[in-house]
Amino acid sequence: MTAALVAVVVLFAWNLGAHYTGATMGMPYASRSISLWPALAVVAALSLLGAVFASGDVERTVGEHLVPAHDVQTATALVIVATAGALTMLFNYLRLPTSTIQILVFCVLGAAVAAHLRIDWGTLGRLVLVWAAAPVGALLLGYAFTHGLDRVAPPAQRLLPLLLVAVGVCASFAMGANDVANATGALILVHVTSLRAAGAIGGAAMFVGALTWGRRILDRVAFDVVRLDLSMASAAQGVQALVVILAVTQGYFTSMNQALIAAMAGTGVARGRNTVDRKQLEAIARGWLIGPAAGFGLAYAVELLARAA
Asked: Does some domain include residue 309?
């Protein structure tokens, strides 16, 4: 059972590496500040580093604070990771950015309810507050950062492509720290590995995922969803990285996609124009609503079936 859990964790982390290429390097790639394969290589390498060296607090939140770790059986942990991973793969196939964090947490809740486990509602409440505050903060900061970059002197404007790639690097590191726990938190939940080892396992899988399947979401975010100039792209990507890093340092994780989309909307408000394709945005919003609900329902059903078998 433990071997199966590790295998599913690796597959889930591989999907995460592919899923967040757009959220981390979508803006640099869209602005032609970096080409395809260097962009994917940056995501792969920096997400690995973030997962290994900066994911411990978030992994602890997933693995120790949502439900009592001593009450969780390996089979339940397997249900959680398998259902969350399957839904993430589906969203990757559909090329829809979503919140894998929210999917994972609701899979934990669904399995916990079915298994009659205690839920730490305080931790859940704090996560919900972070999820609610992050997009609002990103929108306001996107507005402010765009106005700030517009005031930069023209000679300095030429440095914006380098700045945009730099914030993409920061976002990729933040993604590894923020999102690897979606997959590897289950290893902490049932005491399979240490925090650092779990981060390394998940980070390595994310590295491979970004390189092998990351182009689908990267192309979608870069070319189908938004219309930004260089200053706006720099502001949006920088705000997203800042918001996520702030959450991670407090031991919480938030949606990179939601932070980025909100920041892009803020840049549009600053310029007085719409920067996000409405139909694409509506599709993404549906994904954000459907994902958590589907996670809860699927994990609940699978856990009940597993217990009845």
From this structure: no
Query: Is 6 within a domain?
Result: yes
CA-CA distance, 70 to 51, in Å (whole number)? Answer: 24
Return the ∠ at Cα 218 (arms to 212 and 221), rounded to 5°.
Answer: 160
Total structural domains in the chain? 1
* Angle CA 287–214–238, to nearest 5: 75
Note down pLDDT in tens along the chain; length 309 residues: 899 999 999 999 999 999 899 899 988 998 889 999 999 999 999 999 999 999 999 999 999 889 987 788 999 999 999 999 999 888 878 877 678 899 999 999 999 999 999 999 999 999 999 998 999 999 999 999 999 988 887 777 788 899 999 999 999 999 999 999 999 999 999 999 999 999 999 999 999 999 999 998 898 877 776 667 888 889 999 999 999 999 999 899 898 888 988 898 888 888 887 666 677 667 667 777 888 999 999 999 999 999 987
Range of the domain at 74: 2-303
Three-class SS of residue 228?
A: coil
* Residue 136 CA from chain centroid, whole number: 17
Q: Give domain status of residue 267, yes or no.
A: yes
Sign of CA dihedral 178, 179, 182, 187: negative
State the Cα–Cα distance between residues 243 and 23, nearest whole angstrom: 13
The CA distance from 8 to 230, in Å, is 39
